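Support reply, case 0932

Customer input (verbatim):
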Amino acid sequence: MAYFANVSAVAYEGSASRNPFAFRHYNPQEVVAGKTMEEHFRFAVAYWHTFVGNGSDPFGAGTMQRGWDRYSGLDLAKARVEANFEFLEKLGLPFFCFHDRDIAPEGDTLQETNKNLDTIVAMIKEYMQSSGKKLLWNTANMFTNPRFLHGAATTCSADVYAYAAAQVKKGLEVGKELGAENYVFWGGREGYETLLNTDLLRELDNLAHMFHMAVDYAKEIGFDAQFLIEPKPKEPTKHQYDFDAATTISFLQTYGLKDHFKLNLEANHATLAGHTFEHDMRVARIQGMLGSLDANQGDMLLGWDTDEFPTNLYDTTLTMYEVLQNGGIGRGGINFDAKVRRASFEPDDLFLAHIAGIDAYAKGLKVAAKLIEDRVFEDFIANRYRSFDEGIGLEISSGRATLRSLEQYALQNNPIKLESGRQERLKALLNQYLLGE
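Our regenerated output:
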């Protein structure tokens, strides 16, 4: 059955095209900075927003019109699999991502839940083999069910912790079965509301133990996916343990896990933490921890995770600048963890939204590549810090300087001459490149 009968295959038609169901900037085979666009991006569709989300919010019921919603239970799950692969094929994207509870319903017992999961995983595997589509990453939903109201790996209940461990074990097995290139840990409720009832050290220790057990089990079963942690500062818990890139890296270093993980960074999560997306990416990049990206954007007038499709060219350019400086995204990709607005309820809107985001990233890639080719920022930064490449600055950079030697230098009372950071000029240059001037 075709769930998107109104849409045929989406193709690249160039910037002059006025066809809303065509790419104007994303040409999968166009080579930019030594790789095709398809290789740069490794775009993925998010199962939860695209095929499960119904458009509901705290103030209203769902609005989405979806052909598969006439079904229920396992029949609904099977219909969503069909819709997913039809969507990927027509959009021409290579990857998809899911939580375990996105693809199959929970049963009354863990045994029944796993049986449901096995049924759908077998179906997905058949579709993957016939279509050539791949699983960028999978993860376990350990935040929706009421059992996780105190958390999963950071719960105060040992029974819940054991259930979460069993769910992670199954998730790793599913990832191996489907050839997932990555496995993501997102701590949806791994945090606290108040320290008045929280044993902070115990929760952090238990969280690290869960990660170590996952590392050990993946080795045991031969699942060689890259492990990823996705930072988020708040929502639903007031303070989550994976607050931002820096906090998460510190946690991994503290518990001896840094060699086993990289970060899956999301734009809207970074802004909720009070950062730009490129800030969290830069922090991860310089630590060798940039693993994969969730592409979306937030509304700066709202204080929650709105998960809008990314259309801000300024942001997508600086995102791809970091990716190129990183030498690429490795085994990761760019997953559209984004949902259409509640009023964009027709099935065709799913295509229009993804096309908008894909084209925004394609334009950002081309601009970022030109900025790097022309060394617009690199040369300016090198010049700005040139005082550390000679004289007393070189003594500092090489580690030879001491407090005594620096005091002796300062006591010479040589005039200190500062130079402008030229922030506005650099932003104007970025605008010129965006405008193609």
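We compared this against your earlier run and they match. Two observations from our side: The chain has a mean pLDDT of 97. Residues 148 and 230 are 18 Å apart (CA to CA). Please reopen the case if you see a mismatch on your end.
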